[in-house]
């Protein structure tokens, strides 16, 4: 697997606060990679180190196919990014801002600027001053800026912040297209459902630590489960817990919750029948990235699917 980013024991301390703690990350080339965690989990600090904006306390970073660790100017010319709130000149129009940044090193001709403005849905507002833009429009312009010069690697930090539902759907589709075109997109977000819909692989951070990383399908498969109700739930719990593919069995008010790969469901039924315990109900439970996150981190999630801030620092 060709890697575009590889870190080993990457650590950043601010005084006595450890923002990122021994982070070993592998990001394959191409597709969308979700960097997931609550506010304060270390996402922004990690991106800062990958961009050369924050000096690591310890550990190493390799970008692209470099044989030596570190972030250099040649690497950064192949990278586009928006980190936190995008900043532009308030008295310039959206179009003029992009033209200015293209001229001082981001590259991109007039035709490309027009194409990017169309791509992010700012055609009608391109000649308006940036200071008149809504938060969502500012986010869109930030994405256009990140794409100037057709970078191979793009960091998007909370790109749907401030967008209405229609805007969120449009940006989600844009991110999918960017990742499917051979470019690598690092999507940093605390919106679990949004990440699940666009990311091929994810890394979950909590309190500066890497909790899990892998494909979305792999992570969710590890938490697949059955809701089970039988003629003898007490005995069924003992029987299912002894099966080699069952990871956990818990008693519920209406039966059992069995954590296991769903392809083994028929074996559960057979094992129970052999013990003269018969299934009254067997229902697979849909696993979401939100549920997986809650199980591996213990964080709380607000009703709008935003993870509650739980740490000091970013």
Defining key terms:
314 residues; alpha/beta; 6-stranded mixed beta sheet; 4-stranded antiparallel beta sheet; 14 strands; 33% helix; 27% strand; elongated
The major pleated sheet works out as: 6 strands, mixed
Q: Percentage of helical residues?
A: 25-40%
Structural class given helices, strands, pairing?
alpha/beta
Series of H and E elements: EEEEHEHEHHHEHEHEEHEHEEHEH
Rough outline:
elongated
Strand order of the largest sheet: 6-7-8-4-9-10
Please tell me the overall pLDDT: 85
Distance between the first and last residues' Cα: 30 Å
Ranges where pLDDT stays below 50 over 5 or more residues in a row are: 301-314
Strand % is 25-35%
What value does the Rg take, in angstroms?
23 Å
Please count the beta strands (DSSP E, at least 2 residues each): 14
The helix count comes to: 11
Topology:
Layout: E1 3-14, E2 17-23, E3 26-28, E4 31-36, H1 43-50, E5 58-63, H2 73-76, E6 79-82, H3 94-106, H4 110-119, H5 135-146, E7 153-157, H6 165-180, E8 184-189, H7 192-198, E9 201-206, E10 209-215, H8 216-221, E11 225-230, H9 233-241, E12 248-252, E13 255-259, H10 265-274, E14 279-285, H11 289-297
Parallel strand pairs: 4-8, 4-9, 6-7, 7-8
Antiparallel strand pairs: 1-2, 1-3, 1-5, 9-10, 11-13, 11-14, 12-13
Helix pairs in contact: 3-4
